[in-house]
Design brief:
heterodimer; A: Uridine Diphospho-n-acetylenolpyruvylglucosamine Reductase, domain 3; five-stranded antiparallel β-sheet; four-stranded antiparallel β-sheet; B: alpha+beta; Ubiquitin-like (UB roll); DNA polymerase, domain 1; five-stranded mixed β-sheet; 5 helices; about 15% strand; globular
Chain lengths: ~260, ~150
């Protein structure tokens, strides 16, 4: 922490290194100092407390994927983990590192926002929806360290779903969506819906129209159309704005339908 | 310069390295173990994959100083006393390589898969693992066949 304080913006924290090292290799970043967390202890645990899973800063994506606690307590995270990079990069890459790197097309930030999780730092706890600012930018201060991320435990009557479309498995997605629904007596009582890749950060979208109703094909299509009309994705190598908007529409319809089925 | 001590393929090395030196360059240039190949240098191609304390990792995305105290296995460590590893035998049998550039990385990732994660993976799991390795020669099918053969799942 002292090194971070001393060097400020010139220092970078190194955990799994699966995003930072590529940036260094390509000379996109030239930090004067790297602070390697890998030799610290106590940051590599998945624990459950107060209805939330706490994933320490050094928990590898592969370890989280293997964790029985993650599978049973946070199925949405379990569903998104196999989509992160490749087997070998997940052996090294960390859950918290992917969150902190804040790539707008990354899976774990989107899952954290959809679930309403939080980021625990060396000085405060930040709700996921307030953590991400824009591409590769968060509300962290230069000398602030992410200690853990908090993932709400799944409740009875809750169901979630995660979908993305990428050109190849392991590539960053052209569009992605995640949904968590709470269902009681055949009606949605709470709906959380978020989209990624097509915005500059994982973003919650208004899912209020789902509340108080059952979700049928019509309802899923209707909210998908609303969300698609509300976004303005930039073109990239693989798709025009219209293509990515249409892709988002399809993915939103799928996650809403699947979250409903999982919750009911 | 930083002093590091590592075990590579069972042999101990103590070396002085610059903090910025990549593990891949350390293996190839400092130790002369050129069986580990370097392709993209940003974690996409998989050619540089080695095993660090058993787990398959990209050696181009690790600094040599981070490996201090670790045990590393590279493709040179697979064959024991001149006998090819079962995976190497299967790759030969199924013609799972042509130019061989990607092969060392795939062998190390496959060894980790079979020894540490799933001794009898399905073809889908093998394909999923191979999605992290680029091969421009084989079309992948012979590689899947070779790994499935060793796993007994072909």
């Amino acid at each position: 922490m002292e090194t971070l304080r001393e060097h400020g913006d010139d220092a970078k924290v190194l955990a799994g290194g699966q995003s930072l090292l590529p940036a260094l290799n390509m000379r996109l970043l030239r930090p004067g100092v790297l602070v390697d967390l890998n030799f610290t202890t106590g940051l590599d645990e998945v624990t459950e407390e107060n209805g939330s899973l706490r994933i320490g800063a050094l928990v590898r994506q592969a370890a989280a994927q293997r964790s029985a606690l993650v599978r049973t307590s946070c199925p949405l995270l379990a569903e998104s983990l196999p989509l992160v990079g490749h087997v070998v990069t997940r052996n090294r890459g960390t859950v918290c590192g992917s969150i902190t790197h804040a790539d707008s097309a990354a899976e774990l930030p989107l899952a954290l926002v959809a679930l309403g999780g939080e980021v625990v730092t060396s000085r405060r706890t930040i709700p996921a929806a307030e953590f991400f600012v824009t591409h590769f930018t968060t509300t962290l201060d230069p000398d602030e360290l992410v200690i853990a991320t908090g993932w709400p435990r799944i409740q009875a009557g809750q169901g979630g779903a995660f979908e993305e479309f990428a050109v190849r498995h392991g590539d960053f997605a052209l569009a992605s969506a995640a949904c968590v629904l709470h269902v009681e007596e055949g009606q949605v009582t709470e709906a959380r819906l978020a989209v990624g890749s097509v915005t500059d950060r994982p973003e919650l979208v208004d899912a209020g129209q789902l509340v108080g109703h059952a979700v049928d094909v019509e309802a899923a299509r209707s909210i998908a159309a609303t969300v698609a009309a509300s976004i303005d994705p930039p073109p990239n190598l693989h798709g025009s704005p219209n293509y990515r908007r249409r892709l988002t529409e399809v993915l939103v319809e799928r996650v809403v339908s699947r979250a409903w089925a999982a919750a009911s | 310069m930083n002093a590091i001590a590592v075990t590579v393929n069972g042999r101990s090395y103590s070396e002085l390295v610059e903090p910025r030196l990549l593990l891949s360059d350390f293996l190839r240039h400092t130790l002369g173990l050129t069986g580990t190949h370097v392709g993209c240098e940003h974690g996409v191609c998989g050619a540089c994959t080695v095993r660090l304390d058993g787990a398959a990792v990209r050696s181009c995305l690790l600094l040599a100083v981070q490996a201090d105290g670790a045990s590393i296995e590279t493709v040179e460590g697979l064959a024991a006393n001149g006998d090819l590893h079962p995976l190497q035998e299967a790759f030969r049998k199924h013609h799972a390589l042509q130019c061989g550039f990607c092969t060392s990385g795939i062998l190390m990732a496959a060894a980790d898969l079979l020894e540490n994660r799933d001794a009898s993976p399905s073809r889908e799991e093998i394909v999923d693992m191979l999605s992290g390795h680029l091969c421009r020669c084989t079309g992948y099918e012979p590689i899947v066949d070779a790994i499935a053969d060793v796993a007994g799942t072909s």
